[in-house]
Amino acid sequence: FFGVNYYYRTIIRQSPDGKSGSYETVKPEGSEYTEMGWEVYPKGLYDLLTRFHKEYQIPALYVTENGRFFGVNYY
Fold it and tell me: Closest Cα to residue 11, out of 2, 19, 1, 29?
């Protein structure tokens, strides 16, 4: 089996200075973000599992952990 922990996606692009190995993160406009700055993008988990299934033919995929943090204080 294959276990997966998934919380958020990260989009990167080469930095404007063009140096090799230099990159920056991209935050898509209009996306929802948690208090920790994690993009809320559930389709990312679907895309990840679909890719693993297609490329590696893993007989069983288990999502062992996922979620998001909003810093709600219940006490």
Answer: 29
Cα–Cα distance between 41 and 45 in angstroms, integer?
8
DSSP character string of 9-66: --EEEE-TT--TT-EEEE--TT--B-TTS-B--THHHHHHHHHHHHHH--S-EEEEEE
**Overall pTM surpassing 0.70 (yes/no):** no
Q: Positive or negative, the Cα torsion across 16, 38, 34, 32? A: positive
Give the pLDDT confidence of 59-69 residue by residue, as tens digits. Answer: 888 888 777 77
Distance of CA 22 to the CA centre of its chain: 20
d(CA 50, CA 42): 13
Question: Domain residues of the chain, as ranges?
Answer: 2-66
